[in-house]
User: What shape does this take?
Amino acid sequence: SSWSSRKLVTINHAQVSGSSSVANFPMLFSVTDPNLATMSNGGGVGKSDGTDILFTAFDGVTKLNHELESYNPSTGQVIAWVQVPSLSPSADTTIYVYFGNAAASNQQSVAGTWDSNYKAVYHMADNAANTTVTDSTGANNGAARANTSSKTTNGEIDGALSFNGSSDFVTIPQNGHFNLHAGPFTIETWIKD
Assistant: This one.
């Protein structure tokens, strides 16, 4: 009741691959909506950093883990990862986004968004000027260190790092958390050449 506004979010089942439901999937929520600008910018979000934004299951009560990757208080651009309990490939899934509580504490659960199957999640824009790229999983798998000449640039989803092709790099220290010989694994990255 402390949140003044909510919006229904419908996840199109045609965007879910496979024949069975996917459990605890971190779904990308990327939208620019003037209603999600701050109140001082004509929208309904109560905090200038957007941390009063929260997501719930369809019941409007069960809070979902989410990570707010970026927020623009002027335009209402929100890029967040929301851990949806079950995504069906045969029926649309609906959740709610709540906003409008200036007195709320930070509603994110960054580490909770990524389950234990994720060994590291690096968004490649975090603190690039300070050369630290933070792991969102909270698994303490070491901060990646970046040596880039251009630092943060535009990326496919949010920010990215720019590399000069010769001396720029990101390195993740071997710390015992990554055992690539233990079994099958997937590494995903977005690269623009």
